[in-house]
From TrEMBL:
Ranges annotated as spanning the membrane: 20-37, 100-123, 129-146, 275-291
Name recorded for this polypeptide: Uncharacterized protein
CC per GO annotation: membrane
CDD domains reported for this sequence: ABC_6TM_Pgp_ABCB1_D2_like
Alphabetic keyword roster: Glycoprotein, Membrane, Repeat, Transmembrane, Transmembrane helix, Transport
Similarity-based family: Belongs to the ABC transporter superfamily. ABCB family. Multidrug resistance exporter (TC 3.A.1.201) subfamily.
MF (Gene Ontology): ABC-type transporter activity; ATP binding; ATP hydrolysis activity
Domain ABC transporter: 318-588
Domain ABC transmembrane type-1: 1-254, 278-399
């Protein structure tokens, strides 16, 4: 192209000048189209990959045993931080950097070809000077590779330290009412600031390392140039080459190739390499979830629909100690449950557990649901529909994943394809002391119909009436369309409790487990909630854990638990007449 300006023929010069602008215009159009296609396709790939990673990692997390989340490094705040921040970093790698790295790689390949041609030309002009220049130029590339291991290690350290500070922030925001009530915002800020000291030190160390490595590259370049001119001057002084050969060789190897191709491409890629190494280290943390083994894989079985669960139920706890022990300290608490379930009870029986030590009873409700699982699984195994191994497999899979019943259409009359745990969910439901956290960020209508998505408006209203919730819902501006807020923050404690009770009335379970179901209401609202509970317990088995004796006063059987043992059992009148531990607790209230 440059030679065209030195053509002696004026017409040939004009033709060449017209031709090259057209070529560059066509290249610009091709470049625009290629860049649009590149960014569009990488954006689609980014969103698809991000969605896939989040879904699979989240599904993998849900399959872990409960003991996994007891570790400090796997708390809710830390897991949420990794699920959000680290996946976002992978998204940044794919969308913002990966396409640019492909461009850089293509440019580097073209530069490598240009370097080979330039080296051949330089060796033909002045081979001694060319050999020296080629030998010293690799020094400028060493700095880019020296930081790889150090940056990867520092990046993981910073990310882990940030997880701890993020956990503090998540828990502080979630419990901001408590923080404001006790006036401990300054103390919490101090804890957060202290948690930031370690990532700050690691970030400063990484900045120093990166700065020193990046500064070494231009320093080595200038030193190599000085060596080139010094040696070229010596050769020119000895008459081996001319001064023009020195400048020709220098500009061929340095100006033409190194500055244009290597510096503009490789040095431009140096920050990308830094991001690449950092994000690769973060990605190892995400994909480490896949390396963790779960106890067993999910299993679906074909069983007959239960028809006799309203008859007498005999409960027997049968479990594999080695497997159950992996869930934590459940073997100790199972002893409490076994003691409390020595004889079978009919469906009409209502039982309550009262504890003076606030330990042991709430976990017993979970163990009761486990016992019902094994009881029904034993029935299926006796009938030859599934094996004993299938009972244990399905139980230990589903006990740590999900408790929502997901039904499918019947494949034959009176026969369903249902997961084993969901069979028990068809006639059992738990309301626990954390029921207020079970309210979703949606309307009251949707929260009530959560257990029965196909419920009609009349069924929802009738369930709310049964839970003494219809009156206060009707006074709200938007009625059943009122948004509950995050975890039901727009509602009071007793209102959330009554909505939860309405949800269970709508679902109509045959077995109801109540864990501190009257813990949230105040004294004035407790009577309303208790009336709703008495109404929902009619015609079904109810197992209640409570500290307020008014909640269990009218139940058929009350078991008083202390120090891990059932020490008294009977109805309210019998226990108070004994003047024992239960009587003393009643006097305190």
């Amino acid at each position: 192209m440059i030679a065209a300006f030195f053509l002696p023929d004026h017409d040939a010069l004009k033709s060449a000048i017209r031709r090259y602008p057209l070529i560059f215009s066509a290249l610009s159009i091709v470049s625009i189209a290629a860049n649009l296609a590149q960014h569009y396709n990488f954006a689609v790939m980014r969103e698809t990959l991000t969605r896939r990673i989040r879904l699979r990692v989240f599904g993998k997390i849900l399959s872990f045993e409960p003991a996994y989340f007891d570790e400090e490094a796997n708390s809710i705040g830390a897991v949420c931080a990794r699920l959000g921040d680290e996946v976002a970093l992978v998204k940044t790698l794919v969308a913002d950097q990966f396409s640019l790295m492909i461009q850089t790689a293509a440019a580097a390949a073209a530069a490598a070809a240009a370097v080979a041609v330039a080296m051949a030309m330089a060796l033909a002009v002045a081979w001694k000077l060319a050999v020296v220049m080629i030998a010293v130029q690799p020094l400028s590339f060493f700095s880019y590779y020296a930081k790889k291991i150090d940056l990867s290690r520092l990046t993981v350290k910073v990310a882990r330290a940030q997880d701890y500070s993020t956990q503090i922030a998540v828990e502080a925001v979630y419990n901001h009412h408590i923080v404001a009530s006790f006036g401990c915002a300054d103390k919490l800020l101090g804890i957060f600031q202290k948690a930031q000291e370690e990532p700050k030190r690691a970030a400063v160390k990484r900045a120093w390392t990166t700065g020193m490595v990046m500064d070494c590259s231009p320093c080595l370049s200038f030193l190599s140039w000085a060596l080139d001119f010094w040696y070229g001057g010596k050769l020119a002084e000895n008459g081996e080459i001319s001064a023009g050969d020195v400048f020709k060789t220098f500009f061929i190897l340095t100006k033409l190739v190194y500055l244009v191709c290597i510096l503009e491409k490789v040095l431009h890629a140096a920050p990308l390499l830094h991001i690449y190494y950092a994000l690769c280290a973060i990605s190892l943390s995400i994909f480490s979830y896949y390396a963790k083994k779960i106890i067993l894989s999910r299993l679906t079985v074909k069983v007959a629909r239960a028809q006799d669960h309203n008859t007498q139920i005999g409960i027997e706890v049968v479990y594999n100690h080695n497997i159950v022990a992996s869930f934590g300290c459940v073997d100790k608490l199972l002893g409490i449950f076994q003691k409390a379930q020595e004889e079978p009870k009919r469906v009409a029986v209502k039982r309550a557990w009262i504890t003076g030590m606030a330990m042991g009873c709430s976990p017993c409700l979970s163990f009761l649901s486990w016992a019902l699982d094994f009881w029904y699984g034993g029935k299926l195994a006796e009938n030859g529909e599934i094996s004993v191994g299938d009972v244990f497999k399905t139980f230990f899979i589903l006990v740590s994943t999900s408790k929502m019943a997901l039904y499918q259409r019947p494949v034959t009359s009176r026969c369903y394809v249902i997961t084993f745990r969901n069979i028990c969910d068809t006639f059992m439901e738990i309301i626990n002391e954390e029921v207020k956290d079970m309210l979703r960020i949606c309307r009251i209508r949707d929260n009530i119909s959560f257990g029965k998505p196909d419920a009609s408006e009349d069924e929802i209203v009738e369930a709310a009436r049964g839970a003494n919730a219809h009156d206060f819902i009707s006074t709200l501006k938007e009625g059943y369309g009122t948004d509950c807020g995050e975890r039901g923050l727009q509602l009071s404690g007793d209102q959330k409790q009554r909505i939860a009770i309405a949800r269970e009335i709508l679902r109509n379970p045959s077995i109801l487990l109540l864990d501190e179901a009257t813990s949230s209401p105040d004294v004035l609202s407790e009577r309303v909630v208790q009336e709703a509970l008495q109404r929902i317990m009619v015609g079904r088995t109810a197992v209640v854990v409570a500290h307020r004796l008014n909640t269990v006063k009218n139940l058929d059987t009350i078991a008083f638990v202390a120090e891990g043992k059932v020490i008294e059992q009977g109805n309210y009148t019998l226990l108070t007449s004994k003047r024992g531990a239960f009587f003393n607790l009643a006097m305190l209230q």
